[in-house]
Design a protein that fits this description.
The chain has 174 residues and is mostly helical. It is built from seven helices and no strands. Helix 3 packs across helix 4.
């Protein structure tokens, strides 16, 4: 993949100090066959694991293979990045860079939109309850059991003292 196909994946920037900028020697190894290089590479990978821009760094590194043939980028070696590029091409097709760029653009648009109001129905508060009772979320404690008994008693009292309604029979109205 060449960089002329990837202008839509910008180089990531951060205002926080990053290990790749403060300790660049950890990230710049061409060969991994000596112990000192392996130790630096492990440090670089560890630093990338907590980096706030690691995901964007990886996207950029994958899209710009011709610019970064050596070194550690987003905790990946050149061989790992090559494998990832092949997997992305298999999964998303030969235009995988633009597929990822479009997905990032949609995510940025969603992030800048104001949140949509919650469309879930608001539970109605019954006059006998001070708040909506959600038995699947609240434990059934002895206090809750007593409260439930009192509510049932109040409801039964209201049922026995109510005026006859249109569905009541003549015998029930007397």
């Amino acid at each position: 993949m060449t960089s002329h196909n990837a202008p839509r994946i910008p180089f990531p920037h951060s205002t926080t100090p990053l290990a790749c900028r403060t300790n660049p020697v950890w990230f710049a190894h061409e060969r991994t066959d000596n112990p000192a290089a392996r130790k630096d590479i492990e440090r670089a990978k560890q630093a990338c694991s907590t980096c706030p821009i690691a995901a964007d760094c990886l996207k950029w590194a994958l899209a710009h293979a011709d610019l970064i043939r050596i070194g550690i980028w987003a905790a990946t070696t050149p061989r790992q990045r090559t494998q990832l590029r092949h997997r992305l091409e298999d999964r998303l097709g030969p235009d995988w860079v633009n597929v990822i760029a479009r997905a990032d653009a949609r995510a940025r648009q969603r992030a800048t939109r104001p949140p949509e109001p919650d469309s879930s129905p608001v539970p109605q508060v019954h006059p006998l309850w001070s708040h909506p009772y959600q038995p699947w979320r609240e434990p059934l404690t002895p206090d809750r059991q007593q409260h439930n008994r009192e509510l049932l008693q109040q409801a039964l009292t209201q049922l026995t003292t109510h005026a006859p309604g249109p569905t009541d029979t003549l015998a029930e109205a007397r």
